[in-house]
């Protein structure tokens, strides 16, 4: 007797769809691995990130890939972006134009670094580290 198909969580469903994109567009594999990492954080970070900033970044990255591709492959990425947007119930105007265009990103990074490094670094040092991390996110 076959076991009934187990319902996937939203992040598992998204990862499965993204893996199908890798099969269809192998040249995008390294970028897709980064996306899978971000997507895997969406469900786990919901309590920490109720505004879905990670999901927004994934959507923006899918809409503006770092590689050239044909129209069919491009459409697959746009479909994946739309799926993520719907699962997270995000409005179109909530999606940044680029993965790093979220104005709250630097403040969020600085807040997490400050809570993690508060006993080890001064506020000035944390601000410098935040600047470096923010610059790395822009690349």
Order of helices and strands: HHHHHH
- Share of residues in helices: 55-70%
What is the percentage of strand-forming residues?
under 5%
Measured distance between first and last alpha carbons = 51 Å
Structural class: mainly alpha
The low-confidence parts are none
Mean pLDDT figure: 75
Total beta strands: 0
Instruction: Report the biggest beta sheet as strand number plus sense, adding barrel if it closes.
Output: none
- Give the overall form: elongated
Quick gist of this model?
The protein is mainly α and 139 residues long. Helix content is 63%, strand content 0%.
Could you please describe the fold and organization of this structure?
Helix 2 (29-44) runs antiparallel to helix 3 (53-63) and helix 5 (105-117) packs across helix 6. The chain has helices at residues 10-24, 29-44, 53-63, 71-87, 105-117, 123-138. Helices cover 63% and strands 0% of the residues. The model has no long low-confidence stretch (mean pLDDT 75). The protein starts with 9 loop residues before the first helix and ends with a helix.
